[in-house]
Design goal:
about 450 residues; about 70% helix; mainly alpha; globular
Amino acid sequence: MDFKKIVEILQGTIHPDTRESAEQQLNEIHKIIGFAPHLLQVVMVDEVQFPVRQAGVIYLKNMIVQFWQEREPDPKADPREVLFSIHENDRALIRENIIEAIIRAPELVRVQLAVCLRNILKHDYPGRWTGIVQKTIHVLQSKDLNAWYGALIGVYQLVKNYEYKKPNEREPLNHAIKFIQPLMYDCVMLLKHDQSEAAMHMKKQILKIFYALTQYFLPLDLINEEIFTKWMKVFQEIVEAEIPPETSQVLVDDRPELIWWKTKKWALHILARMFERYGSPGNVIKDYNKFSEWYLKTFSPQILTTLLKVLDQYRQQQYISPRVLQQSLNYVNTGVKHAKSWNIMKGHMQILIQDIIFPLMCHTDEDDELWNDDPYEYIRMKFDVFEDFISPVTAAQTVLQSAASKRKEVLQKTMGFCMNVLTQPGVGPRQKDGALHMVGSMAELLLKVSG
């Protein structure tokens, strides 16, 4: 298989005049043994023009998705028809080189290679490809920070393949994580004080791995109390870390996409999930009863103190990204239900309601602009159930409902505040809208009380 010829054909797929004939040539040669590994080689070579590499990786991804697994013949099909799948020799070469390709690839190519890797792992791990674990360990033990990121993307693809599987189906993953998890922790500790973009991308990738690993099942045999405590300290420190001052020069609408805010979002995503699913006594499955009691006792003071600081920064008009605010409120919402965590929060609750929840529930400048520009989009957004999953306004509303229903003193004080806003002269319509929004959020509870 001629490397230069493949580059030439891929180049042809980019230009409208030659695209059709180039695609026809690819269809004629893609079944030849050696084609797929050569395609990966094209993708890996820096000297090849980027558009050509991108065309190559997309074609490779489509091949792997369609033809990696050996397919059973259709009983209704012509028995003389041979179903194509990538030859095992080619698959072995791709398995041998794909991690290296991910490490060396630019971001847009790396994204496509990650999809390739996930599909390969889905069919070949652990049966045909146990060597990936050792390869990943070798890379993470090296001093090459650039290589770490590629290896972590590989770990993420492995974990994602098992994310929704039952605990008894996760043994191959647990075997890998037993060796990889300590190295991930070492990586994040080495980068602890590094706030560069590259370091933050690696931290974010580690957080995404941890979240996918523990979202539905926390393997207590792998992550015992000592290890869990270390990770919780990592998440807390990431939440507490200061954002570089130069980010304030970025437009407000663009700031949530900055890697520093994204990393904080993932740390808070994990904290909120750990509390809700594993650390909330009375709301966990029996396997986590003991763990939940330990979690509530051990982490309530320190984590809530950190999150109350985040919320106080928002109260003082400092910028906090919407998802960071939302996840902080989600954690508070779980804490309202438990006496131990409530005792920490109750002294702050009235300020939280008046200075954070109330402003969030008021009609904002952004709401007004959208209403004037596109009322249909405004209505769609306000009633979009998917928006509710990520909206700090919905999170604030949920905290208010939980606090008012679980803690009697909250309902009376909140209604007093709302009535004061609604009856006091000189209060603007936006503030009255916020007060009515709060009353509406508690309507079901108010009807029960009056009934």
